[in-house]
Amino acid sequence: MFDYRCPECGRGTVLGTEKQNYQIRVDGVEFYIPKAVIGICDSCEAINYDGKEMHRWEQVYKQWQTKSERYVSPQQIKEIRKSLLLNQNEFADYIGVSRQSLAAWENEKRAQVQPNNVDIILRILYDEIGRISRPVSQKMFAEYYRRTGKAAPAQEQVVSENKEEILSRILPITTYTIIREKAQKNNSSIFTEIVRLCETCKQTDTYVNSIWGTGEKSETMTILMNNDKFSPSFSYNLKKKDDPKYAYSKN
Hints:
By secondary structure, the chain is of the alpha+beta class. Helices cover 46% and strands 20% of the residues.
C-alpha cells in the first residue's frame, strides 16, 4: 500500500500508519473512520493517501448513512410524497430527481441514501408537513367554509371526516425549498401574468375545489415557471395587513 519514496520531498519514505477515529469529510459531512491507514513521510511528514483505502472509507461512510437517523428515512419520504398526493413520477419531478433515484431512496433495503442537497429539501418538507397541527388546520377549515359560503359542521366532524379532502385543496404546499436555476431569474412578464390572473379570477366554489396549493408571490412564480401542470387561480388575504397569498390549481 505504501513504502515508497516521498513524492513531496524526494528524500524520505512514505510509511503506512494506522489512525484511530480518523476524521474525513464526505459531501460536506464530517465523519470518523474507526481505523484508517494513511501514509506519512518519515522525513518531511507529508501525508499521502491510498486509492483503495479511500474507497473503503467511502463504503464505511455509506453503510453508516443507511443506518443513520440523520437522513430522512424511506418511510418518511413515502409519507411526504403521499401527503402531497403525488405518485413517484410526479414527486420525483417536484424535487428535481429521477424516478429511479426516488424509488431507490424509498426502498427500505436501500444501499445508499439521498444526496445532502436532496435530503435538505426532504427534511424541510417533512418538518413542514409535521408542523400542520390541529389548531392551524382549524383556522384553514374556518377560512374554507367562510369563502365557500357553506355551513361549517362541528369542528370535530371537520377534523375527523373532511380533513384530508380540505387539506389537499387549500393548505400550502412547500414550494420555496425547490429553488431551481431558471426560477432565480427575474421574469417580470410571467410575474405580471400571475398577478393579473390571480387578482381577476372570481373566488367561487369551483376554484376552491380545484386548488392544489398556495404560496407567496415568489413561491407561486417558482412552481408555475417549473411545472406546466399548474395554473394560477386567485389571490387572498387571511388578514388585511398580511401580504396576499396566491393559489394555483392543477390543469
